[in-house]
Specification:
Blueprint (H helix, E strand, L loop, with lengths): L3 E9 L6 H6 L8 E8 L5 H11 L4 E6 L4 H11 L2 E6 L5 E2 L1 H15 L7 E10 L4 E5 L10 E2 L18 E4 H6 L12 H6 L8 E12 L9 H6 L1 H14 L9 H24 L3 H17 L1 H8 L2 H6 L3 H19 L3
Helix pairs in contact: 8-9, 8-10, 9-10, 9-11, 9-13, 10-11
C-alpha cells in the first residue's frame, strides 16, 4: 500500500536561485504529498536549501543527495525512492499554479479510490516567458474527452504537434517500476523518453482540463535554447535513436489510435533532430541526420514511410539545399511562435 497519494520529484542541479518557487508551489498539498528534492551533485547552496526544507517539513519533504548524473538519473532516483501512488516530475525552475494544484490533488484522490487504478493523468501546461510578458497555454481538449476515465480508443482525434510532454503527465508509480523505466545518465531531452516509453502500458487514463504546470522560459543556458540544443545535438540524436528502438510500434502497440499518436510523436522528435542538424550549418550534422533516417528505414519500413511522408517529415527531409532551407524556416517559425529564444 502506498504511503502517499503523490510523489513530486524535483531534480536540482545548482538551483539555489530559483528552486524556492518550485518547492513552495507544492507544499500546500500537505501530508498526502511527498516532495523529493533530488540534489544532483550541486556545487552551490542547493543541498543546504534542500536540507532546510526537509527540516522544516519533515512529513512532506525528503532531501536526497547524489553524485551528478544528470536530469534522467535524478528522475530515476525519484521513481526508486517514491512512496506515492502516483509520480510527477517538477523541474526546479518551474512551478505549479495554486488553484489548479488543488483540483489536481482532488482528482488524484478521487481516482485513487477506484477499484481499477488509472495509469496516467494528463493536465495542461503553460509556457511562461516573463521577459516578454508572453504566455502560451498547451491544452488537450481537442484530443481527449475531459473529466472521465478513458482508453486510447476514446481519443477524439490525433493532431500532430500536440504532444503530451513531461509537464503534462502524472504516471502511476508502480507502472514505471513494472516496466523498468531507466533514463540514461548525463543526457538532456530524456523527458521525451519518460513520456513515450510507458505509453503502450497505459490502459486507462484521465484528462483534467486544468493549467497545472508552469514552464519557465528565459533562463540563460536553458536546454531548449537554440545554441544549447546545437551544442548538445548528439544527445538529441541519442534520445531519438532510443525512441526508435524502445517500442515496436506495430507489434507492441495494440491500439491503432495510440500507434498513430506515437508515430506522430516519433515524427516530431525526428523532425527536431533533422532541423537542428540543418540549423547548425555543419555538414557533419547533416550526415548524422541522413543516417538517422536510414536507420529508421532499415529498422521498420512501415514506420519510415509513415513519418518520412507525414506532414512534417516531408517538409524537413527533402534532400539537398532545398530541404535544409525549408527545415530551418520551419524550425525558426516554431521557435518564434513558442518564444523559445
Amino acid at each position: 500500500m502506498s504511503e502517499k497519494l503523490l510523489t513530486i520529484a524535483i531534480p536540482c542541479y545548482n538551483s539555489q536561485d530559483y528552486m524556492d518557487k518550485a518547492v513552495r508551489s507544492v507544499l500546500s498539498g500537505g501530508d498526502k504529498v511527498e516532495i523529493l528534492i533530488v540534489d544532483d551533485g550541486s556545487l552551490d547552496d542547493t543541498a543546504r536549501i534542500a536540507d532546510r526544507y526537509e527540516e522544516e517539513y519533515p512529513n512532506i519533504v525528503r532531501a536526497i543527495h547524489q553524485k551528478n548524473g544528470g536530469h534522467g538519473v535524478a528522475v530515476n532516483t525519484g521513481i526508486r525512492e517514491a512512496k506515492g501512488m502516483y509520480f510527477k516530475v517538477l523541474d526546479s525552475d518551474d512551478w505549479f499554479e495554486k488553484n489548479a494544484y488543488k483540483k489536481y490533488l482532488d482528482t488524484l484522490e478521487m481516482l485513487s479510490k477506484r477499484e481499477e487504478l488509472v495509469d496516467l493523468l494528463i493536465t495542461n501546461f503553460v509556457y511562461e516567458k516573463p521577459s516578454e510578458n508572453h504566455r502560451r497555454r498547451m491544452l488537450f481538449r481537442a484530443l481527449f474527452p475531459t473529466d472521465k476515465v478513458i482508453a486510447w480508443e476514446d481519443m477524439k482525434r490525433n493532431i500532430k504537434g500536440f504532444s503530451i510532454l513531461m509537464h503534462a503527465v502524472t504516471y502511476r508509480t508502480q507502472l514505471l517500476r513494472d516496466i523498468g523505466l531507466e533514463l540514461p545518465a548525463h543526457t538532456f531531452y530524456v523527458d521525451n523518453l519518460f513520456v513515450y516509453e510507458p505509453l503502450p502500458h497505459v490502459k486507462k487514463f484521465y484528462y483534467l482540463d486544468e493549467d497545472l504546470y508552469r514552464y519557465y522560459i528565459g533562463r540563460e543556458g536553458q536546454s531548449i535554447t537554440e545554441q544549447t540544443m546545437i551544442r548538445r545535438i548528439d544527445q538529441q540524436f541519442a534520445v531519438n535513436y532510443r525512441m526508435i528502438d524502445a517500442v515496436d510500434l506495430y507489434k507492441d502497440v495494440k491500439s491503432p489510435r495510440l500507434r498513430a499518436y506515437m508515430l506522430g510523436y516519433l515524427e516530431m522528435i525526428t523532425v527536431v533532430s533533422t532541423s537542428l542538424s540543418h540549423v547548425s550549418k555543419d555538414p557533419v550534422n547533416y550526415e548524422k541526420a541522413k543516417k538517422l533516417w536510414q536507420y529508421i528505414k532499415d529498422k521498420d519500413k512501415r514506420v519510415y514511410y509513415h513519418i518520412r511522408f507525414g506532414i512534417f517529415g516531408q517538409a524537413v527531409a527533402k534532400p539537398g539545399a532545398l530541404g535544409r532551407f525549408i527545415s530551418v524556416k520551419c524550425y525558426h517559425l516554431t521557435q518564434w511562435f513558442m518564444r523559445f529564444n
